């Protein structure tokens, strides 16, 4: 029997086939889950539509701007109508203005700080709140974070601060959702060549640095992130909540 047979989930954050969200969605689907997807704006609709369609022509696909409460409310109303309940949710959503990911952190504008935190951290709170009424049988919520939340990664800048807020939010949400048997965790992935990552200055050098310094002497593979996402969604992780799991070939343990 598949690990996630009979589970119903929703995935936020697929942009294209290289997205970490897509790697986890594929793993969840393979493990037996039925999934719905959202996309951010018309520019990404065709990509996500094509990918989601590989799971079946009836796969639920909806637009969602996570900075708009009315979009979030509509998405979960549609999920409620189609699924009736929800067991899984993936939050793989982050954004900061490009100029905030260049130069010095000290030059972060008030607006860039607001946008980064609204999209990358507050959205998790808003989505969990909207999902809660549908998660009547317990479940698992997974967010995506990065090591720049706890150590300085040049050029990651305000996104690192927003990811720190995301991780703290994960702990508080885990406490709130615990009585409903809903677990909330984050995966801290090593660098992966995604659309979002390519917006970070010096990303290619970052990949080389990880490969040289991580104990496993390589970078993480998307399939490995999918496997971790499936573990966190499964009964095997039934006692794990409020945690950040590092899936980075061991890089996080290194001092030098």
Automatic annotation (TrEMBL):
Binding residues annotated for substrate, in chain numbering: 96
Protein's UniProt name: Enoyl-[acyl-carrier-protein] reductase [NADH]
Entry EC number(s): 1.3.1.9
Gene3D superfamilies linked: Enoyl acyl carrier protein reductase (1.10.8.400), NAD(P)-binding Rossmann-like Domain (3.40.50.720)
Binding residue positions for NAD(+): 13, 19-20, 40, 65-66, 93, 163, 192-196
GO biological process, one term: fatty acid biosynthetic process
Family, per entry: Belongs to the short-chain dehydrogenases/reductases (SDR) family. FabI subfamily.
Top-level division of the source organism's lineage: Bacteria
Keyword Lipid metabolism: yes
UniProt xrefs under PANTHER family: ENOYL-[ACYL-CARRIER-PROTEIN] REDUCTASE, ENOYL-[ACYL-CARRIER-PROTEIN] REDUCTASE [NADH], CHLOROPLASTIC
Lineage summary: Bacteria, Pseudomonadati, Verrucomicrobiota, Pedosphaerae, Pedosphaerales
Reaction it catalyzes: a 2,3-saturated acyl-[ACP] + NAD(+) = a (2E)-enoyl-[ACP] + NADH + H(+)
Enzyme class: oxidoreductase
GO MF entry, a single one: enoyl-[acyl-carrier-protein] reductase (NADH) activity
Pathway(s) where this gene product acts: Lipid metabolism; fatty acid biosynthesis
Keyword NAD included in the entry's annotation: yes
Organism of provenance: Pedosphaera parvula (strain Ellin514)
UniProt-annotated catalytic positions: 146 (proton acceptor), 156 (proton acceptor)
């Amino acid at each position: 029997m598949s690990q996630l047979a009979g589970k119903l989930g929703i995935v936020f954050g697929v942009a294209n086939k290289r997205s970490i969200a897509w790697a986890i969605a594929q793993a969840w689907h393979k493990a037996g889950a039925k999934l719905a997807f959202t996309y951010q704006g018309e520019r990404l609709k065709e990509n996500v539509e094509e990918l989601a369609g590989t799971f079946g022509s009836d796969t639920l696909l909806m637009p969602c701007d996570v900075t708009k409460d009315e979009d979030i409310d509509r998405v979960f109303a549609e999920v409620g109508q189609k699924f009736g309940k929800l067991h899984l949710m993936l939050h793989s959503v982050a954004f900061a203005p490009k100029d905030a990911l260049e130069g010095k952190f000290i030059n972060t504008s008030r607006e860039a700080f607001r946008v980064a935190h609204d999209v990358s951290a507050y959205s998790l709170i808003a989505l969990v709140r909207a999902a809660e009424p549908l998660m009547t049988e317990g479940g698992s919520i997974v967010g995506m974070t990065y090591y720049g939340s706890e150590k300085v990664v040049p050029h990651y800048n305000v996104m690192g601060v927003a990811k720190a807020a995301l991780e703290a939010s994960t702990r508080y949400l885990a406490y709130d959702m615990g009585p409903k048997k809903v677990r909330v965790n984050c995966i801290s992935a090593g660098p992966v060549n995604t659309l979002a990552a390519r917006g970070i200055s010096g990303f290619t050098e970052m990949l080389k640095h990880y490969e040289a310094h991580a104990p496993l002497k390589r970078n993480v593979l998307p399939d490995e992130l999918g496997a971790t996402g499936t573990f966190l969604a499964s009964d095997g992780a039934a006692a794990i909540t409020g945690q950040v799991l590092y899936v980075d070939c061991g890089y996080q343990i290194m001092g030098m």
